[in-house]
């Protein structure tokens, strides 16, 4: 059974040659169709993943060093992180952060399109402000019919014959309702890529995610619950699909808290300190043993003198 599925990154549009859109199975989300501009401080946790100064995907700040995005977004080389601005054309007050390492879910794309989630560790600390703040994420699953919010710089419309879609500079926002899994799977014609690791969300025909929204946050009651993954391009009346944060909660928490993802300098410093403490402890033990031996010898000598 053939289905069109698209990852959301903006740059994929360049590959959609005229008359060959059927060559793709999924399209990753590039933009929000039918959304409204977000106000200045609506999503301070939102970041733009950029390549050579061009927006390719969205992401969400979880801590001062960790960003959550979609796994298919981190295939691009030389990614930088732009934070602190809802307007990509206004860099005043915005901050650029470099990527130190990327952690992709070990089962990404196995089965195909599954576990589309990754974490980015920045080289620099992201100092919090009114425009740069983390968003809490939860292990709870989203109830059916829940009111959700997506923000992103994805395309404003979809034209399979255009080389590049119309991309906004201002951050867009759109409300959704969560769709029951069985209904979503039916609308996707029992697509293999839609499973319990996903959240399906829908507004109405003509409104939805599109190229460039990939990796962006799906928010429920102020908490991050989903990561934009793939759509039936675009706003065609079929629910958009997001990687579920609740389903991948253990992966996220383990990655953030695991010492093996600390910097090599930090690990080396910790090992050196442990070695120094061990050596100091051994020196003290040797000193104590030597003192005890000396004390024992002196005691034996005194007793020997007393006898004679």
Can you put this structure into words, describing what you see?
- GO terms for molecular function: serine-type endopeptidase activity.
- This protein has two domains: 6-257, Thrombin, subunit H; 263-307.
- The protein has three helices and 16 strands.
- By secondary structure, it is of the alpha+beta class.
- The chain has helices at residues 181-187, 249-257, 264-307, and strands at residues 6-7, 30-33, 36-37, 46-51, 54-61, 66-69, 79-83, 95-104, 118-122, 147-152, 172-179, 198-202, 208-211, 217-220, 223-231, 240-244.
- Residues 9-35 and 260-265 have low confidence and may be disordered.
Give a quick summary of the entry.
Belongs to the peptidase S1 family. Pfam families: Trypsin. This protein is of the alpha+beta class and 308 residues long.
CATH topology of the largest domain: Thrombin, subunit H
Average pLDDT score: 78
Taking all Cα atoms into account, the compactness measure Rg is 27 Å
How do the SSEs run, as a string of H and E? Answer: EEEEEEEEEEEHEEEEEHH
Which structural class fits the helix and strand makeup? Answer: alpha+beta
> Would you identify the regions where 5 or more consecutive residues have pLDDT less than 50?
9-35, 260-265
Percent helix, as a range, is 10-25%
The CATH superfamily of the largest domain turns out to be Trypsin-like serine proteases
How much strand content do the residues show?
25-35%
Query: How are the strands of the largest sheet arranged?
Result: 10-11-12-16-15-14
The biggest beta sheet reads: 6 strands, antiparallel, barrel
CATH architecture of the largest domain: Beta Barrel
Highest-level CATH class of the largest domain:
Mainly Beta
How would you name the oligomeric state of the polypeptide chains in this document?
single chain
